[in-house]
Amino acid sequence: MADLIEISDPADPRLADYRDLRDVELRKSLESSEGLFLAEGEKVVRRAVAGGFEPRSFLMAPKWLDGLADTLATTDAPCYVMSEKAAEEVTGFHVHRGALASLKRRPLPSVESVLAGARSVLVLEDIVDHTNVGAIFRSGAALGFDAVLLAPRCADPLYRRSIKVAMGAVFALPWTRLPDWYEALPSLSAAGFTTVALTLADDAVDIERAVEGVDKVALVLGSEGHGISPRWQHASDRRAIIPMSAGIDSLNVAAATAVACYVTARR
Amino acid sequence: MADLIEISDPADPRLADYRDLRDVELRKSLESSEGLFLAEGEKVVRRAVAGGFEPRSFLMAPKWLDGLADTLATTDAPCYVMSEKAAEEVTGFHVHRGALASLKRRPLPSVESVLAGARSVLVLEDIVDHTNVGAIFRSGAALGFDAVLLAPRCADPLYRRSIKVAMGAVFALPWTRLPDWYEALPSLSAAGFTTVALTLADDAVDIERAVEGVDKVALVLGSEGHGISPRWQHASDRRAIIPMSAGIDSLNVAAATAVACYVTARR
């Protein structure tokens, strides 16, 4: 059972994990140096712990204690209890869903273990927006994808915003970083996957045709601004497009991913 | 040609349209009482003016003047020119894409005129998140939908965030508010549309089956939290679901819309 510790002073050093949650750069640096990540909201906190991540601590107003009693019962980590107002001073914003947890990151699994048994995989090159990363995980999980691989510069799925938008799918779906950007796609092809890059390139074929009858598929998605890099466009086995109305900007990457996952899941 | 007016004082009363852009409630009240909306970013500002909306004024740093010279040439509205730092003091945040415009809202068109000639229509009940509204417009426009109808409580497509996420699709796609929530769906059916509600209801059929061979379709989408109201669920001609993995939260409404638009466009 978690140790309940009432704290009234927002400056208390035990609250260091929860400071200035709106400062993205500061958080990135703190979270990677300390090996932690933050979960926000009752449902997401519960899923993080149920997903096997070890809590460092919890922070919540008294009214959230009952709802998370089952989760708090599974751990010896401290649970700091504060008024909402004091918690707001620590975090820098109004914590809508009340409960926060700081959890330990785990070493990333190998690409081989993430791909073991997988038939449908998402490969994210340089998606830099945490909301998009979270949305892609959520859609992938809902539409039957088995795993996610991230290029070295893709945004962090364990950043608070990614986790929240993913509704915890980052805990359910196996994922890891690709250690080698340059050889990533040829390695996937060698492992038996047909790599299908979603792109507006001239030689792209309709996504339904690109995945039709293919067994193991790796759907490759590029950055919000410039799409997939020339290296990856060239290295992918197929280039595919979602047919769109003339004169309209392409779909947002999260929307395009949802459509492509849907089509690929039904191949 | 717009009148270029240099302003150095952030407190200048001519800048009233641009104050405190992060304060959602204040903005809602100001924008509806003044009958204005704000466009942000060179591309979006250009599309708003090209879409026939009359500018009240522009606000930008000197470096954006050249890029928008074509747009500024079409109007007599004042263009306030300020340093980025001073502009930030007015708006309350760093204006990444530099240019802002305040434009006049127009009277909403009638439902009949929005539906004239339309074959694929989106109907949004109580989508309260501006990002979702914008994403839905963008996907609808890209995937071949002809019009959007909004229930009385749906979030404003002309709110700055909606416009930005929609990449200006709110200027291209005809839309209006439904004056009568209660009779909205029966009226659409009477106008020859098959209303298809996207829902997790037990009697929902696969979306592909629901729209197969249907001529005029109105795809009905509900709020992020509770989905479509019982009244609208009951009043819709068909209830449809996107097949999903067991045990996973449903898709985000913007992702679900993208998939449903894709399927419906190919019916």
Automatic annotation (TrEMBL), chains A, B:
Classification via InterPro entries: Alpha/beta_knot_MTases (IPR029028), MRM3-like_sub_bind (IPR053888), Ribosomal_eL30-like_sf (IPR029064), rRNA_Methyltransferase (IPR051259), SpoU_MeTrfase (IPR001537), tRNA_m1G_MTases_N (IPR029026)
Q: Name one GO molecular function term.
A: RNA methyltransferase activity
Which BP terms in the Gene Ontology apply to this protein?
A: methylation; RNA processing
Q: Which residues form the MRM3-like substrate binding domain?
A: 33-91
Specify whether Transferase is a keyword of the entry.
yes
In this chain the tRNA/rRNA methyltransferase SpoU type domain maps to 121-262
Q: What are the entry keywords?
A: Methyltransferase, Transferase
Task: Enumerate the Pfam families for this protein.
Answer: MRM3-like_sub_bind, SpoU_methylase
Q: Which CDD domains does the record match to this protein? A: SpoU-like_rRNA-MTase
State what protein this is by name.
Answer: tRNA G18 (Ribose-2'-O)-methylase SpoU
